[in-house]
């Protein structure tokens, strides 16, 4: 897991290596300073030797400047490496998501993916920066300070051997208690983001039903849950600091007691005692040794906190797309013919029932096919198999006489244009949105596609025409306008197969008829599949399918179905004759 994420450092590897190296230089200078100060006092101030005072003072200034330079360099390298690591990690995760099939995306909620790309990556960035700085500084300070203390007095240094095990045991006891809490907190963040996303996306519905108070209550409940969990974790971790201070002051008292006796003893025998300068440096080393242990505890806590984000980002990076192009794919779609051969499909391998059952169907290239059926009859499921948004569970689906699983995915999907049930426009101008269908489309091609989709008239009515800015989600255009823009965008692909998934539901019947007439006259060679709720939208089709319960209940022309299909008769009667018969 760590190895996989470590690949995201890439071009920032030199900075990631230099950060700990310069940190070691900073630590070495900091540990040297107490020794220089001891010599300054013992051999300079106490003996009244001005030369020693000047030399040692210069050494102190030099050590301090070197420590500062190493510290600044380490911080700069760590920042560059940390932000670069986060950038690459977000890049890899986002690109991985782009390769997901619909079934892969179904595993992760939108809110969860957003949280993993933002909060989780930010936590990992902070942990990474701490690892290449503090995780190096703490042990190096502890080791070098302990060795320096040992060179002054082995007996006094044994005090650390009493304090360090106490802190280590306390740390081992505290950290497991907070790990489960932090793990729960990051899962709760997903819920929080989901509530915010739903509220903002559906703000018009919320306001129309005057449910703002209810949404605030939902948000507050989840926010309070995060607050309580963090407070609980911090209360547990709060024991760490007083315990640390107790050990530090205990060590200082012990060193003061025994050190004072050794200083007094040095008056009789300097070889057996301790100088005043050495005693003062022992106090500094005590603080350095135990503070570094405290720092290690902080690093450990950060590592525990980052375990959940680490796992969650790893899941995104290692999720294998369910759909992929074969080793030697077909790169050209011959025509728009479609063949379903005993096709059955279910969304999950664990599902008990098939969403589609035993579909046998041949659609010749250039034909217009209408699809009717009640809610949940799997109309959308049927057409989503054609561009291989999902793979069939059983049977074979062919486009242009070739199994869709043998095509290069890009080639297949470039030949199929879908206008989905839920129309999506992106922030940008109308022209930029339309060029999603064809990035190289000329202004003339764009206008022609809009004329076919009956969108040119209302676009020309805008002050800026095709340069009119579309807000995020297309909130500044009506539902019917949005549908017509999406149809025009699909037409710019010049597809062999055009799928309209209930994509004219928001336009009036006259406009719907004009769009269908334009399709018949302008793109006769394109196979057209039209999912609709209105009989008028499909009655002129070459073939009409009646879907019921995931199967094709009937098929035929408008006239044939009026004679043979009770379902079609009922729908026609209710819509056209008002249910009088």
Features of this protein?
581 residues; alpha/beta; ABC transporter transmembrane region fold; six-stranded mixed sheet; four-stranded antiparallel sheet; 12 strands; elongated
Could you walk me through the main structural features you see in this protein, from its secondary elements to its overall organization?
- This protein is an alpha/beta fold.
- The chain has a domain at 2-318: ABC transporter type 1, transmembrane domain (ABC transporter transmembrane region fold, Up-down Bundle).
- It has helices spanning 2-6, 13-45, 50-98, 102-107, 110-152, 154-157, 160-201, 203-208, 212-237, 240-265, 276-318, 379-384, 409-414, 430-434, 443-452, 456-460, 479-491, 509-522, 558-564, 566-576, and strands at 338-345, 356-363, 368-373, 394-399, 402-403, 416-419, 428-429, 469-470, 497-501, 527-531, 543-548, 551-556.
- The strands form 3 sheets. The protein has a 6-stranded mixed sheet with strand order 6-9-10-3-11-12.
- A hairpin with a 2-residue loop joins strand 11 and strand 12 (551-556).
- Helix 10 (240-265) runs antiparallel to helix 11.
- The longest helix has 49 residues, at 50-98.
